Amino acid sequence: MIVVMRRWATAFVAIIAAPIVFALIAGRGLDLPDMMEAGLETTAPTAALLLFAVLYFGLMMDLKLFDPLTNFILRISKGDPLRISVGTAVVALAVALDGDGTTTYMIVCSAFIPLYRRLGMNPLIIAVLATMSLGLISGSTPWGGAATRAISVMNLDAGDYFVPLIPSLALTSVFILLVAVVLGLRERRRVDADLIVELAAEIRAGSRSGGSGGVATMLGGGAHSAAAAAAAAGIGAGDGSTMAAGAGAAAGAGTATGGVGWRYWFNLVLTVTLLVLLVLDLAPLVILFMVAFVIALLVNVPTRHEQGELIKTHGANAVPVVILVLAAGIFTGILSETGMISAMANSLLSVVPDSLGGLVPLFTALISIPLGFFMSNDAFFFGILPVLAESASTYGIHPMEIARAGVVGQMAHMIGPASAPLWVLLGLLKKELGDFQRFAIGWVVVVSLIFAGFCVLTGAISVSL
Q1: Residues 316-351, buried b or exposed e (16+ Cβ, 10 A)?
Q2: SS3 of 376, please?
Q3: pTM of the predicted model over 0.70
Q4: How do residues 277-314 score in pLDDT, each as one tens digit?
Q5: How many CA within 13 A on the CB side of residue 55?
């Protein structure tokens, strides 16, 4: 954290170098290759998934698939930064229900980055609202991944686990919306009032004129310019030459009369189908994205040369994400295999006196925030949470409460280096990890503590003295 936030090194270097240095200090140098390989094995599938997810959604954004969503948000926002900020939180909370971080970030960014860029709003607002929403909703629902691990490792019933959490989730969602209001009011004061008035006038004009491009066309450039769409979305479009022309032509096919072309509807059905299959978990995510990308490429960019240009363009955006995910595997592999993670958890638990054993669920919720930041979900939910549950059982506390307490740290996890989808989000926003963490960490810690408080107040986790 210190190295990254102080900008002494890139995130890629810091995430690999720091655990190696401390493993050497701990006298585990000879074990480093095996530990690093073990970590890489856990993140390699995620790295492959992110590669094809970036390629797929990059192509979809080039083809303006999400323009209708942007148009709708624009019309109801009327160019007001406050409404745009709240809209960001609402969409993020809704989309996070699908449980997939990459998909959530792609959809939220594609809808809102053009608006933020047009007004000069701080794009880190998108990042903090999206990560908190994903950590709260996806991190707590039984199908989201994190809670699934806790439910499976402790043999719990998903319904019994989830239903008592619903009031806490609802109340904490309201607080995320309040954070959006605060950030939106701050941006409303900072953004040039004349620019807001100008955008509101453009939105009214665009809404009246309609057409295939609509309001979003004014933000993204020409109606069929893939290069402009990519630039507005914060995704590098390379030199914008052949690939942009090919994708732009595909986007414009069948729109000569101003209507939406058949390829748009094909891409929409393909994307919805992909998201449904993601939720149903009918096949590994990497396979779904790989096949969907090939289908989209064949339909929208049929020539070999244009396909190569598109892959090179979006591949340049994907490579930094992939290598950071692999670096995160080394980070978590060393911390887990050396026993550093277990030692931190046991040390924290040891400070709880026997007389305060009834506070173990609350204590678990509190330590899940820092541990969630540093650890992979596999390491925490498979390695640490069972230890905490066993300790709690000596005080007569059911493992169900420890499982609920464990997900409190998921918002912190979503801004930590072990969260693979975070690198996709930062790539889309073109922001550094340190800049984002400095902006987000205060909000995330406060809302995580509020979530823990609501869990206690609603009885999702118990506290007894």
Answers
A1: ebbebbbebbbbbbbbbbbbbbbebbeebbeebbee
A2: coil
A3: no
A4: 876 767 877 888 899 999 999 999 888 888 888 888 87
A5: 28
